[in-house]
Structure prediction request, 381 residues.
Amino acid sequence: MNTNTPPVETCDCPLVKERDQLAEWLSKIAPGAHVAVDFEAAGLHRYTDFICLAQLASDGRCAIVDPLASTDMLEPLGKMLTDSGHRKIFHGGDYDIRLLKKGPGIETVNVFDTMIAAQLVGREKLGLAALLEAHFGLLVDKRYQKADWSKRPLTGELLNYAAMDVIRLVELSEILEEELVKLGRLHWAEEEFRLLERIEPAPPAPPSCFNVKGSNKLAGKALAVLQALLELRDEMAREWDRPPFKVLSNHVLLEWAVSPPKTRKAVIDTRGAGKGLLSRLSERIMEDSARAAALPQAQWPQKPQSKNRRPPMTAEEKKLLSALKEGRNSVAKELGIDAGLLASGAVLESGVRDGVEALESLLKNWQKEAVGDKLLSILNN
Prediction:
């Protein structure tokens, strides 16, 4: 028996299913107290992503909120998230903040993100489970990472798993904040937190054959077939309220794009999809494939030209880019953080191509403080 295995923590967080009950729980948060926040969504199991569960913890109390219980369930939570008097603790909160803005239209202020903090103090393992184990000796059960949070009722095991995302998050934030202060990097993190608050959800984009991995190996007619099949899949996914990948895989669509099935049997015998689903869609698959294959060349999909497409770098520019990367990497090693945090390759390339002013405009204030002088000295020499 391995006595060194960390314990699996359990907790008893109430499931809040009434708006007034949530408002009462929130009203008991002490003035200025920090609040841990996390959300579970439906993206892996539904066509449209939406918040299915909200987890909260503060002052040693926790609650799990069911937003599906009523249409206005998250309204009291929205008021707390927009209250600058409470620091909201997230871990990897960019997805959560986008989801709040996209769905209920809730802004979040005074954010502290423990993943960002962990990056800036030089942690190698940034996942919440790894940080909980490292700091508290806890083992998080990962069996429910891909659970369908839109299903009801929720089991006790699922609720316990969800609660683990918040019950130690305030404590973790305090530990990381103390490290940031000791390293003189708290203002670095605060700049990142303010940027995180302003992040916006990406606009919906129609399916494109050029976004499918492996499509670069296809010719024009095959791309037309692939595009038609992607649009069919998206239509069915929307109608059935499933994510597109759970209707038909990209692998199957690529196979049909190269060799469109011409008989119902050929469709149904395709490996990688259920025969029942293939049987239902067989006629549409054949019809849409044949229609796309018959399109004239002028109507084949044309890859959008990049607005920022540039000529290849010269030998001198490559040499300068290499020097910038070397300088950045040396500073990153001294600071004990990932080099990409200091300046991405794209930012450095822009400095090479467009000069000092372009580089300065792309660097954040804390990046200028950490590595700006080093990079500018290389560019100016």
User: Anything to note?
Assistant: The first strand starts at residue 15 and ends at 16. The chain has three domains: 15-197, 209-299, 315-380.
